[in-house]
Amino acid sequence: MPVWVQLVYLACAVCFILALKGLSGPKTARTGNLVGAGAAVVGCVVPFLYLDLDHVPLMLAAIVLGTVGGVYGARKVQMTQMPQMVALFNGVGGGAAALVALLELEHMGSFTAGFDLAATAFTIVVGSVSFAGSLVTFAKLQELMTSRPVVFPGLPVVFGAALIAVLALSVLIVTDPSVGVGVLLALLGLAIGVLLVLPVGGADVPIVISLLNAFTGLTVAAGGYILGNTLLLVAGTLVGASGTFLTLLMARAMGRSVANILFGALKGGSTLGGGEASDRPVKSAGPEDVAIMLAYAERVIIVPGYGLAVAQAQHTLRELVDVLGERGIKVDYAIHPVAGRMPGHMNVLLAEAQVPYEQLKEMDDINGDFKDADVALVVGANDVVNPAAKTTPGAPIYGMPILNADEAKQVVFMKRSMRPGFAGIENELLFEPNTTLLFGDAKDSMGKLLNAVKSL
Amino acid sequence: MNDAVVWLTIFVLSVFVGIEVISKVSSTLHTPLMSGANAIHGIILLGAILVTGTTDSGLALAVGLVAIVLATVNMVGGFVVTDRMLQMFTRRKPKAPAGSTEGGAA
After folding, report:
1. pTM
2. Which residues of A carry out catalysis?
3. % of chain A surpassing 90 pLDDT
C-alpha cells in the first residue's frame, strides 16, 4: 500500500473522530455528520485510484443501486419511524461485513495465522447476528410482528446450544479453514440474532438497536484487521466503543441493566399486564371541560409521547401552547429521556414541529415543577408517567425514572383508548381521582381543544 | 515491533477515543448520534470494494456485489437520514418563543 494511501486513511480516521465529537453537541452536530460523510466517500474512492481493480463497472452499478436505495429510504421515512430505519441500515451493514469476511475466507488456508482466522469467524458470526437481530427489531417496531417479548419453552437451551456450536465451528475454522464451515457459522449467527431479539419487549428494542450498532462496529473493526486496513479498524472500533457506551447511557436513562433487557424475559419475570384494556371506571371529559382547566391554570406542563407524533398532532399542540402563552400561562414540555421510541427521539419530533428549544425541559430539570403545576397534560404518553415504575417491583418498567405527572393538581390524559403503553402494563395513574381522560385521536381532540380554548 | 501488537495498539487507543469523544453527549442527541455512528460503520463498503475488485470467481463476484449494495445502503442512507434529523434542530426560527417568559438553558 503506497504511503499516500495510508496517509489519506489516517486523515479519514481523524475525520471520523471529529464527526463523532461534532455529533455529540447540538451546534456542531450537522457539520460533524457532513465531515463523517465526506471522509467515508474519500475512503471508498481511494482503492479505485491506486489499485488495478477488476469488475469496476459492475461495482459502480452496485454502488449506484445502493445509493438510490439508501437515499430513497432515508428521505421517505417518517420521523416517527426513525428507530426502525436506523435498525435496518445497521443490519445491512452487519450483513455486508459478514459477506466480506466469507469472501476473504476463500483466500485463507492452513498457512493463515490462527488469530486471523479467529477474527474472520468473529466477523462472520457477529455480522450475521447484527443482520438478523436488526431485521427482527425492524419487524417489531414496524409492527410486522408483536412488540411483546416472544419466549418459548427451551429457548435458553436452544440459545446455549447455538452458542456452543458457534464456538466449536470457530475452533474448527481456525484449525482447518473452509468456506463451507464459514457458511454454517453465518447461518448460526443468523439464528442467534433472531433468538437474541425475540425475547426483548417493545419498549426495550431501542437499546438493542444501539447494542447491535456497536456489534456491527466491532465486526467492521475485525474486518479491517483481516483485510489489513487501518481505516476500517479505527472506524469500526470507534463505533464499537462509542456504541457500547451509548447503550449503557441509554439503559441507565431507563433505569435498566443491559443484561436485564436482553435476558429479563427469559426468567419469566414480567407477568404484569396481558396487553388487555381494562374496564375499571375512569373519569372522562369533553374538550370544552379540559379547555377550561387549561385556560384558567397558571402553570401547565405538557408530557408528549409517541402517540402524539403518530397522530401528527405536534403542530396543533404547538399552536395550543402558543394560545395558552398569550393568556399568560407558563407552559413547558417535559421530555422524558426515552420519550418516543429512542432516547432523544421526542426532541427530533418536536423540533420538526418547530417547538422552541427553550420550552423543552429535560426530566431532571422539570420533575420538581410538577407539584406546582395546575395541569399536567399527557398527550400520547403512558409508560413514562406510570407510577408503577416506582411502586411495583415486579413491573417490567420498575426502576425506570419517570416524570412526576402524578404530583400535578390535575392530570389530563389524551388517549385513543384504554390500551396500555408500549411496555404493555396498566397505568394506575389513569384511575386516580384527579385524573381526567380525553378520549379520541390525538390530532382530532387537540384541534377541538384548541378551538375550545380560543373561544373562551 | 510485532505487527499484531501494532494493530492491538491502534485498537485499544481507538476504544478510548471512541468513548471519550461522546462522553458528554446530552440525551437530546442520542438518536442522531446513534444514527451517525451507524453511518460511519458503513465504511465496510471500502472492504467490500477491496474484496470484490480482486476476485476472479463468478460466485464470489455475485456475493461481493451484494455486499457492496448492502454496505452502500448502510453508509449513504445512514448519513442522509442523520442529516435529515439534524436539519430539524437547526431550522428553528430565531424569534423569541411566545409561551415561555424565561429562556431556559439548553
Report:
1. 0.81
2. 383
3. 55
